[in-house]
Design goal:
Alpha-D-Glucose-1,6-Bisphosphate, Chain A, domain 4, START-like_dom_sf, alpha+beta, AtaL, Polyketide cyclase, 28% helix, 155 residues
Length: 155
């Protein structure tokens, strides 16, 4: 098992041309992504919520042609956790809202089955790059929804 992490600023310093997001708006974007990840995650073809409760949901997604069942846990206004445990793969993915000296951050952290060695290193880097893109697309889509005045989710 390997852990891969990446952090991006929510509001890039010096970018006056973009809608500035606050913690509540980022949280709503993460909830929206949990409920329907298709517009947020490249390669995801389907996302169906099977069960929904106050602390999370169970969903079935199709990503890169593979049907996967995920449990999603909500830790209000700070973390969304995605977990998969089946005979094909195991992973634990966190999307964390944090803060540093420059402001809000969004961090992806994943623990998954990736082999050690050069082959695994390349695979881990591709996973990291893909998730950085997903973080950026999540923030971009959230900005679009906020700018358009669209409600992202129902609480």
């Amino acid at each position: 098992m390997r852990t891969i992490t990446a952090t991006v600023p929510v509001n890039e310093p010096g970018r006056t041309d973009q809608v500035r997001l606050d913690r509540d708006e980022v949280w709503e974007g993460l909830l929206d992504k949990a409920r329907n990840a298709v517009p947020y995650v490249a390669g995801m073809q389907e996302c169906t919520v099977l069960e929904h409760g106050p602390d999370g949901l169970v969903r079935e997604v199709v990503i890169a042609g593979e049907r996967v069942r995920e449990e999603v846990a909500f830790h209000p206004k700070r973390r969304v956790t995605f977990s998969r445990r089946d005979d094909r793969a195991t992973w634990l993915i966190h999307n964390d809202i944090g803060e540093d000296e420059r402001g809000l951050t969004l961090t992806f952290s994943a623990t998954m089955e990736i082999p050690e060695g050069e082959e695994g290193d390349g695979q881990a880097e591709r996973v990291r790059e893909g998730y950085v893109a997903a973080l950026r697309s999540t923030l971009a889509r959230t900005r679009e929804n906020v700018a358009a005045g669209r409600a992202l989710s129902t609480r």
